[in-house]
Design a protein that fits this description.
Layout (H helix, E strand, L loop, with lengths): L5 E4 L3 E5 L5 E6 L2 E4 L4 E4 L3 H18 L6 E4 L4 E5 L2 E2 L2 E8 L2 H7 L6 E11 L8 E2 L1 H7 L4 H23 L3 E15 L2 E7 L7 E5 L9 H4 L5 H11 L9 H12 L3
Antiparallel strand pairs: 1-2, 2-3, 3-7, 4-5, 6-7, 8-12, 9-10, 9-12, 10-11, 12-13, 12-14
Helix pairs in contact: 1-6
The structure holds uridine-5'-diphosphate (UDP).
């Protein structure tokens, strides 16, 4: 295969030049990082599962009219996406207290929040993605007020939709992170959902047992990390119990690595 031009390599994904102008190929790696990349590891088969899970969610969101960068999945680890100008803000939506919210404000993990909270973080690894307010976004021109209104509206729609989607398969959506990007149409820019939605950037707890089915298993060394990602995919109907192809793929991966 002809060598493609790599545009960017992040912690969990690589972006390559796409087949047409304005497109990119998003490749999902098995690499995992936590605590601002101080902890590093691999979650075998994660890239395959996140590619499928994110495809499933972005496709569903498009059917309810949320514009996204997703075009189509190409293979086990790659998807074709629209090239966007990433807005340097991570949008965190919280339904239940956990993670940094619990730590900063001393609210017990698992406490249902009386209303959904949206928080903003400035995307800058060197600064450790600091939390910011609307005022910083306006002051430094990271996004316009209109763009932020669109982003907040879409984030709430995504949250409502995902809460229902996960509740239907016995999962509580505790919190999650979104990223948005601009696409240009002449002089006019529009904001669309970008990046990915997967157990890497969501907290997902089993509705009955509160078992964590997300990257916290890696962050907190809880074990059964691969199994948690597989469980989410299986419940979403992306991994049939009798169709073990993806699992077999993971197993052959492990065997090759002598595990
Ligand atoms: N999150 C993420 N990337 C980040 C920071 C947070 O995907 O760089 C997600 C994280 O998985 C969780 C939510 O955003 O679902 C809220 O994370 P939190 O602020 O609690 O930070 P953490 O505890 O992960 O440091």
């Amino acid at each position: 295969m002809a060598r493609r031009r790599q545009i960017y390599e992040g912690k969990a994904k690589i972006l390559y030049e796409g087949p047409e102008p304005g497109t990119l190929i998003q490749y999902f790696k098995d690499d995992a990082t936590a605590f601002n990349a101080q902890k590093r590891g691999t979650i075998s088969g994660k890239g395959v599962l996140n590619n499928r899970i994110s495809e499933h969610i972005f496709t569903a969101l498009q059917t309810i009219g949320v514009p996204t960068h997703f075009i189509r999945r190409l293979n086990m680890r790659e998807q074709l996406i629209r090239q966007v100008e990433i807005i340097p803000i991570e949008i965190v939506i919280r339904n239940v207290a956990a993670g940094s919210l619990s730590k900063r404000l001393g609210i017990e993990e698992g406490t249902q929040l009386p209303r959904t909270i949206i928080e903003y973080y400035y995307k800058d690894d060197a600064l450790g993605d600091p939390m910011i307010a609307d005022e910083h976004i306006a002051c430094f021109g990271w996004a316009s007020q209109d763009e932020m209104n669109d982003i907040a509206d879409m984030a709430i729609r995504v949250n409502d939709f995902l809460c229902g989607m996960f509740a239907a398969i016995g999962i509580r959506l505790i919190d999650f992170k979104l990223e948005f990007g601009r696409v240009w149409d002449g002089d006019y820019a529009r904001v669309i959902l970008a990046d990915e939605i997967s157990p890497d950037g969501c907290r997902l707890w089993d509705l009955k047992t509160n078992k964590k089915l997300d990257k916290d298993r890696f962050r907190q060394d809880l074990g059964e990390v691969e199994e948690a990602y597989q469980e989410v995919a299986r419940r979403l109907g992306l991994l049939q119990p009798d169709d073990e192809s993806a699992v077999l793929d993971l197993d052959s991966h492990r065997k090759k690595r002598g595990k």
